[in-house]
Amino acid sequence: MARGLKRYFPMIQTKAEILQEIRQKQQLNSLFNGWTKEQQQEFLDFTSGMKGVKILYDAFFKEIFDPEAKPERLETLLSLLLKQKVRVRNVLPTDNTRLADESSLLLMDILVELEDGSLANVECQRIGYKFPGQRSACYSADLLLRQYKRVRGEKGKAFSYKDIKKVYTIVLFETSTREFHEVPDDYIHHARTTVDTKLKIDLLQEYIFIPLDIFRQKLYNRGMETPLDVWLTFLSVDDPEWIVKLIQQHPEFTPLYEEVYAICKNVERIMGIFSEELRILDRNTVQLMIDEMQDKIDGMKGEIDGMQGTIDGMQGTIDGMQDTINSQKNTIDSQKGTIDSQNEKLNQKDEEIRRLKKLLERKQHAEI
Length: 368
What we know:
- The protein is α/β, with parallel strands linked by helices.
- Helices cover 60% and strands 11% of the residues.
- The chain contains twelve helices and six strands.
- The radius of gyration is 40 Å and the shape is elongated.
């Protein structure tokens, strides 16, 4: 596939054309020269079709799955994930004060209200965060609180907690964390709170975790088996051969790639998109390194605490032995005192016996 994807998408520019446009504009040239050789090559590869575009890039994903312009795409994906027919009723703003305002590893989020009033938040993470469970639980709580405030404000005194609908937190991981690789046979994880008896009660919060790196391993071994596999292939694969296989078997995806490559024709815009992705990735990598270093520090601290515990235990043993020695010494000293007292009494007895012997000898001598 020497020409890469250009033979299937003629609008794709060649590397020479892209470089020519970059060199003609000082700002673009400076930006390009500021990248590493590997980053320059990555940019040229996907813009010229030698490799596929990463659909999880923020700008691409939001363009493809724009719930206002093309709701049917997001509806199809959500219907497959939630295993029920889904219609997007409203697109909700994501610029509120939320728990994700901290420096995060999120590339994007799309938040929509479904036809039944439930909320679905789709999140993408290039680097799987260290604690996806805790993080996702916070996002879900944020969704639930947002819905509660809105519905209570709309209903007023007529408000009932039964008006609150489900909230779905859907997380796509480009590179997943260790927890997911401990169950390598699964790439769709659906979580909900349950009761440990037969009690049936709806606690509203549900989660779907999708480690795309594990999905790709399955894909390369067995191919696309289900409609959901097809969509996940589109989301996760940048191998040109698999992209060609996808559009040949499912030509309805060709227009989606055409939209992406239409964006790539605008060299200035696509360089801005790529530069922002690099910035986010660098920040996330630094944060991940900090987290990993903190884990090592915590681990070392745990080892030191363990060693200190061992030392304290040994010191306790030594102190106990010293107490025993001191007790034994006290016993010996006491016994020595008793012996010395007995010796003194014996000496006194010996002296008295000697004195009596002398008296006896004198008496005997006098009688003679």
